[in-house]
Amino acid sequence: MYNFDSLLQRRGSDSTKWDALKRDFGRDDLMPFWVADMDFPVLPEIVEALSKRSTEGQTFGYTFAGQDYFNSVIAWNKTRHGLDLEKDEIIPVPGVVTAIAALLLKVTKEEDKVVINPPVYTPFFQVIKDMNRQLVLSPLIQKDGKYIIDFADLEEKFRHGASLYLMCSPHNPVGRVWTKEELEQVTQLCRKYNVLLVSDEIHGDIVFSGHTHIPILNVCPEAIAISAPSKTFNIAGLKSSTILVKEPNIKKKVQEAIDCLHLYPNLFAYEATKAAYRHGAEWLNELNAYLEESARFTVEYLREYLPQIGAYIPEGTYLMWLDFSAFGLSDQELESRMINVAQVALNPGVEYGQGYGQFMRLNIGVPRFYLEEGLKHIVDAFK
Ligand SMILES: Cc1ncc(COP(=O)(O)O)c(C=O)c1O
C-alpha cells in the first residue's frame, strides 16, 4: 500500500506549481491546483535508481538509450495497453511538446493547416503558431453532458485541406478517454482526407474504472503517438518521453527531425523511466484508485455545498473542468475572485481556447485533505 495522503513540501524547490505563483498569479499565498504535476511522493524505486546512478561511477558523459530502456517501454506498453512495439518503433525524446514541435517542423510545411480540438492543452495553440503553421480549430461539443468530437465539423475542416490532426488522448482538460469507436471514426476521416494523425497520449496511464485507454497505434498503425512516464509517475522535471511510430516513411522523417535537433533525453530520464515501468504498476493502480475517489469526492462536495459549480467525474487524467457560468461573473471577475478571495490557483479556462472563460481547470493530484481545504476556499468565496 502506498501513501497518497501526506503533502510533499515543495516550496523552495523551484517547483513551477508552488514557487511560480507570484510570477503567474501575482501573489504567492495561494493554494496551487494548476500546473499538471502531483504533490505525492514519487515511486521509491525511481528515487533509488536515480541515487544509484548519481553515485555509481561518477560518470555523466553522453549516454544513449540502452536495451533495458527499450525493454521497459516495450513491456509497459504491452502489459498496460496491449500495444506491441519493436525497439525501432520507439524514439526517446525529452518532452512531448518538444516532440510535437519537431514533428511539425519535419512532417509539415509552413502555412500547412493543423487541426486541434479546443478546449485543449494550451501549448498546442502556441507551438503550431510558433512554427508558422495555420491553426484550425474544431471545438469539442457537449452531448448529454459529455464532451465529444464534432465529427461533421472535423470532416469539414479536413475537406479544406488539413495536413495534420493533433489529438489529445486522453483529453486535457475535459478528461475524456476516447473510445475505440471514436478513434476508428477519427482514423477513417484521416485516411479519407490524407491527414497525418498525431496523438498526444501523455495522460494515457491515468484512466478510471469503466474506461480503457486505446493506443492510437492499435487503431491506426500509420499514426504517430507521443507517450511518456512523466504525468503517470510525476517525473516531468526529468524530461522523458517517447515518440511511437510504426510506418517506415514517417518514422524516417521523425528520426531525422530528432537527430537534426539533437533532441535526446538525459541519462537520468532513462534511469527513471526504466525504474517506473519496471516497478510502478501497483503504485499506478493505487494512484488511479485514489484519484478517481478524489474526483468523486470533489463532485459530491460541490454538489452538497455549492451545486452552481458544474462538475463531473472525468474518465481519466487528474484534471477537472469546472463550470462557473452560473455565477454571472465576467471572465476577469471570476479569475480575480479565485485568486484574491478564494486564494487558490487554478488554470483559467481561457488558456484552453476562446470562449471558455467561465471554466477553471482544477488539478486534483494532491492529498485529499488538501483538496478538501481548497474546495472549501472556493465554496466560501463563491457562496
Ligand atoms: C496533453 C499534454 N501534453 C503535453 C504535456 C507536457 O508534456 P512535456 O512536459 O513532456 O512537454 C502536458 C502537460 O500538462 C499535457 O497535459
Overall description:
There is one protein chain. The model has no long low-confidence stretch (mean pLDDT 97). Helix 4 (67-81) runs parallel beside helix 10. The chain has a seven-stranded mixed β-sheet with strand order 2-10-9-8-7-3-4, sandwiched between helices. The protein has two domains: 16-43 and 281-382, Aspartate Aminotransferase, domain 1 (Alpha-Beta Complex), CATH 3.90.1150.10; 60-279, 3-Layer(aba) Sandwich (Aspartate Aminotransferase, domain 2), CATH 3.40.640.10. It is globular, with a radius of gyration of 21 Å. Helices cover 41% and strands 14% of the residues. It is of the alpha/beta class and 383 residues long. Bound molecules: pyridoxal-5'-phosphate. Residues 36, 95-98, 121, 168, 172, 200, 202, 228, 230, 236, 241 line the site of pyridoxal-5'-phosphate.
The helix/strand series, from N terminus to C terminus, equals HHEHHEHEHEEEHEHEEEHHHEHEEEH
Largest sheet: 7 strands, mixed
In CATH, the architecture of the largest domain is 3-Layer(aba) Sandwich
Radius of gyration: 21 Å
Q: Structurally, how many domains make up the residues? A: 2
Shape: globular
SS elements, strand count: 14
Output the strand order for the largest sheet: 2-10-9-8-7-3-4
Regarding quaternary structure, what we see is: single chain
Structural class: alpha/beta
The CATH superfamily name of the largest domain is Type I PLP-dependent aspartate aminotransferase-like (Major domain)
The residue-averaged pLDDT reads 97
Bound molecules: pyridoxal-5'-phosphate
CATH level 1 name of the largest domain: Alpha Beta
Low-confidence stretches: none
Cα end-to-end separation: 38 Å
Secondary structure tally, helices: 13
Q: Looking at CATH, which topology of the largest domain would you report?
A: Aspartate Aminotransferase, domain 2
Helix content: 40-55%
Strand content: 5-15%
